[in-house]
Amino acid sequence: MADREGLSDGFNVPQVKDCDKMSFWLSQAGWERLRDADEAGTMKTMLGKGSDVDPLVTRLLSDSYICFYHEEPSSHSSNSSSNLLNNMIQKVVKPLT
């Protein structure tokens, strides 16, 4: 993750932060938890203020200007991880408004 730092002196330098807890959310179990929350209508509660999810993870998953790029799945790999990623991106990565 990167935030801009140092605007007062005319510089706009990105400050990079480690988001080590993101690996769980990119795993099969993490995607399933996101899918279940989306289907139950509890996504905003799960990722909202006061939740137990790391704020950097919440920001990465919910900021509308962040894009995830993926490879289009081929027709012969219907159960591939890129299919799962594609489906979850369409359902999960949207602003929490």
UniProtKB/TrEMBL annotation:
This is Uncharacterized protein. It comes from Ancylostoma ceylanicum.
